[in-house]
Specification:
Layout (H helix, E strand, L loop, with lengths): L3 H9 L30 H21 L3 H15 L7 H32 L5 H19 L2 H10 L12 H40 L7 H15 L2 H11 L5
């Protein structure tokens, strides 16, 4: 599975964009003309890749980047506080998306420098550029993937022992997603611990005072919000998320 975002850059490069009309007014023209030279994709294959980008782009962003871990952890934070509508789902997804762009920035810069730029300069064929871009994405995913998860999918697919560079994307992607889910739930568990302690203290206090009819959540929610604000919770959560990837 190629890196679809880079493929879009490769398709849109060249003289197809930024053209002007005969009257001098700016215009837009998409050129899908290509060649069938060795090492380059034909026009039909390029059209298939373009349609794949439009249909699978969101899935690639979610499954092959750090988006999965970030959005799950942010959801755990909202549930741990107990305020289901603040922040809203749109804000959580938007924050996760921009954090994904920030964390994946160095990886995408390397892909642009090593794959897109040489291709647009005519120094590299489209097939070679996609291989280089895929290698960078696979390196990022393998860095975040546990060895046991990759070994698990290699055994299921009945493939022998492989080096890191030889593992196909059909094994790397599910291994990466499984590792991200495990890491996200571990971080979510650690986030829940202090809020559970607050709930336990409030419930015990109400029980000792004989106020058994008073819902503990009514009393504990303000204390959990106060605790989260005093420790600057959003800063700590975002800092922990960014540092957990170690992308340089």
């Amino acid at each position: 599975m190629p890196v679809l975002a880079v493929a879009f850059l490769l398709l849109c490069s060249g003289d197809g964009f930024g053209q002007t009309t005969g009257t001098g007014a700016p215009g837009l023209r998409i050129d899908v003309s290509g060649s069938n030279d060795e090492g380059d994709f034909g026009v039909a294959i390029q059209l298939v890749v373009a349609m794949t980008i439009l249909s699978l782009g969101p899935s690639v962003i979610m499954m092959m980047t750090c988006f999965t871990r970030i959005v799950i952890v942010l959801g755990f934070v909202r549930n741990a506080i107990g305020v289901n509508a603040a922040p809203s789902s749109q804000i959580i997804i938007g924050l996760a998306l921009f954090l994904t762009f920030f964390i994946m920035g160095p990886v995408w810069d390397r892909i642009y420098d090593d794959a897109a730029t040489p291709y647009m300069a005519g120094e590299m064929k489209s097939g070679d550029a996609l291989l280089v871009a895929t290698a960078h994405m696979k390196d990022f995913m393998m860095t975040q993937t546990r060895q046991s998860d990759a070994q698990f999918f290699l055994e299921i697919s009945r493939q022998g022992a492989m080096t890191r560079e030889e593992i196909p994307l059909s094994v790397v992607v599910p291994s990466f997603v499984l590792s991200e889910l495990r890491t996200a739930f571990q971080m979510g568990f650690l986030i829940f611990i202090p809020f559970i302690i607050v709930d336990f203290i409030v419930a015990s206090s109400l029980m000792s005072m004989g106020m058994m009819m008073m819902p503990p959540v009514v009393i504990s929610m303000p204390f959990k919000l106060l605790l989260f604000v005093l420790v600057d919770g959003w800063y700590l959560v975002i800092q922990s998320l960014v540092n957990s990837f170690n992308v340089g």
